[in-house]
Design brief:
single chain, alpha+beta, 2 domains, five-stranded antiparallel sheet, binds coenzyme A
Length: 203
Amino acid sequence: MTGELSQALQTLAPSGFLIGCREIAFGDESALLDAEMRSMASRSIVARRASGAARIVARQLLTQLALPAAAVLRNVSGAPVWPQGVIGSLAHDDQIAVAIIGKTGGFSRVGIDIEPVEPLAQDVVDVVMTASEQRNISDAIERKLLFCAKEAVYKASHPADGEFLEYHDIEVDLPGRQAFARTGGVFELRTCMSSHLVALALA
Ligand SMILES: CC(C)(COP(=O)(O)OP(=O)(O)OC[C@H]1O[C@@H](n2cnc3c(N)ncnc32)[C@H](O)[C@@H]1OP(=O)(O)O)[C@@H](O)C(=O)NCCC(=O)NCCS
């Protein structure tokens, strides 16, 4: 099931970064290390299963980068805590977990998000999209990809500056492959529409 997505993800990864995915499976919660469990103890079994799957992928990528397959804790705001010299991001929907990892160098901030290939629900369009985004993007699946991009931008931005962003605090230019945060951050976007929608935000 992940073959097509896995291939599509490889085309997104910038130089020095690795991206991987995994179908979330029963039992993936047991991949969480003790310290990781403690950092997310109050979460449901379903949430811990998805987090376990994401960390299986993350540890595979760390190993491929010749780094120790370290614990990836959640900090108080939910962001992943990477080993020294590494940046990365995790995401999951109901079925698939994804991770991106790189050695600090070219890019210093990265965020990833994954969503099912479904239209952006009409009743959240005004919450998610600014007026100019609504004028520029009319296709409902592309609107979902824009939503995915905003979540990726938040994950790239929040760990660096601690600023909470609403959806309207981020302006996405999908054709131009850029996003602009209220806080001044400018992010390169890389997106794919495969078995799932995936967005990467890089700065
Ligand atoms: C960060 C956030 C967008 C994640 O979205 P989500 O749909 O709940 O979850 P996803 O599956 O896409 O991603 C989960 C991963 O995001 C990462 N994450 C969570 N909070 C994060 C943060 N503050 N910064 C960076 N990454 C974060 C974690 O690695 C998490 O994986 P884990 O649960 O296995 O540890 C959401 O939890 C959040 O904090 N939202 C508040 C801000 C917001 O929604 N603003 C409007 C959109 S810009």
